[in-house]
Amino acid sequence: MALLRALLSSMLLVSFFISLTEAREFLVGGKTNAWKIPSSESESLNKWAEASRFQIGDSLFWNYDPSKDSLLQVSKKDYDSCNTSSPIAVYKDGNTKVKLDRSGPFYFTSGTQGNCEKGQKLVTVVLSGRREFFNVSPAPSPVEFEGPAMAPTSDGTSLRGSFMAIFGVLMRLVLLEMMM
């Protein structure tokens, strides 16, 4: 019985750490209607992004007035020059959700003429993997990240499923032992 309790405790601990690796959804800027021209450098969305840690599988969510603005995903070159003529993706619905499906930088600008030049833009850097529970390091600064992003080799889904199956079996064993 003591062995089963120890195993159950261990499985609960492992399940806790696995739950920390679940994908999250981030409201851009941390508040509704943050997608706007910043009134100062301290209101820049890049300050918010630098303080956040994005992982593969997370999503960014924008809330904005679609009659006044839109969102463009752009290349680094177009981000730096505020060129909106050849975006990677265009979003105009006012409630935009973008999944961060790879490691590396993602660049976004306003689709409204002149807003990018006034600072309405965002770069996020997605960390390379979810498998490292204890080896946490800060994300690189967006200006330091010039190279191509490497695609992940695994998202940990099969590992999570295996732990849940083992957890279920151990729970049944503990319940059976308690009934005897």
TrEMBL record:
| Keywords from the UniProt entry | Cell membrane, Disulfide bond, Glycoprotein, GPI-anchor, Lipoprotein, Membrane, Signal
Q: Where are the transmembrane segments?
A: none
In the UniProt record, does the keyword Chaperone occur? no
A GO MF term: electron transfer activity
Q: What is its main location?
A: membrane
Q: Give the signal sequence positions.
A: 1-23
Domain Phytocyanin as annotated: residue spans: 24-128
Topology with respect to the bilayer: Lipid-anchor; GPI-anchor
Question: Where is the protein situated, by its record's location annotation?
Answer: Cell membrane
Q: Which Pfam families match?
A: Cu_bind_like
> Where does it sit, as one GO cellular component term?
side of membrane
Q: Does the keyword Disulfide bond apply?
A: yes
Q: Which domain of life is it from?
A: Eukaryota
Similarity remark? Belongs to the early nodulin-like (ENODL) family.
Its recorded name reads: Phytocyanin domain-containing protein
Q: Which source organism does the UniProt entry give?
A: Castanea mollissima
